[in-house]
Design goal:
single chain; 225 residues; Rossmann fold; 2 domains; 9-stranded mixed beta sheet; 31% strand; globular
């Protein structure tokens, strides 16, 4: 079995879903968690030790181990990925055994495909992407690095979702739509036209927009909308 360390130890959050997938695959041994929560340092979660925080990555002995980043926040996940690569640490891709992935789909390093997700033909999935529970990624989609497709999202054919974008629970994106870098689509939205970079879109047909700084999460109204 292969040793794997999980970055992110919120078992009642995304990390719990990742741990379940890791165990379901039956080819990994959980070798530790890394988490920045001060109260978790030096503790165990179940019988698995918290080895340290992300600041300790350069000092931990991860030789022979792979790592997966179980953090839902796109910017934080991407920055950690870049840090791991500077340290020459392998970042594992995790695909739950119940997911359906067409044979000619490409999936980048460190991505996570959750239970019941479907990815159809010719889709291209970038690095550290999350395709969450029951999401449907249709044919010829392109999902760039550090995208998060929340549970129950559906994309039609030839959709492009650019880097750091977030698509909320139960949202639908119609064919040939482009979602810009850092855009955020609110839960239950139906997207019928392109979404500009760093925009937040809420509701049917992208009714409401506002600018969002993808690095600070500071939002400002635009044009009174």
């Amino acid at each position: 079995m292969k040793d794997i360390v999980i970055i992110g130890a919120r078992i009642d959050g995304h990390a719990g879903v990742v741990v379940s997938a890791v165990l379901a695959l039956g080819k990994y041994r959980l070798a530790g968690f890394i988490d920045n929560t001060p109260e978790l340092q030096g503790t165990n979660i179940g019988n698995v030790s918290v080895l340290g925080s992300s600041d300790d990555l350069g000092n931990l002995n991860l030789t022979g181990k792979s790592v997966h980043i179980a953090i839902g926040d796109n910017s934080a996940r991407y920055e950690l990925y870049k840090k791991l690569k500077t340290l020459n640490i392998e970042v594992e891709t995790i695909i739950h055994p119940s997911a359906i992935v067409d044979g000619n789909v490409t999936i980048g390093e460190g991505s996570f495909v959750a239970p019941g997700a479907i990815i159809n033909s010719n889709a291209e999935i970038g690095k550290v992407v999350i395709i969450n529970t029951g999401a449907i990624i249709e044919h010829d989609n392109k999902l760039a690095n550090a995208v998060h497709m929340a549970p129950g999202t559906t994309t039609a054919g030839r959709v492009d979702v650019n880097e750091l974008a977030f698509v909320g629970v139960g949202s639908t994106i119609l064919p040939d739509i482009t979602v810009g870098t850092g855009a955020m689509i609110g839960a239950g939205s139906t997207i019928v036209k392109d979404v500009e970079p760093q925009m937040t879109v809420i509701g049917y047909a992208a009714q409401k927009y506002k600018k969002k700084n993808i690095y600070t999460s500071t939002e400002t109204p635009e044009d009174g909308k």
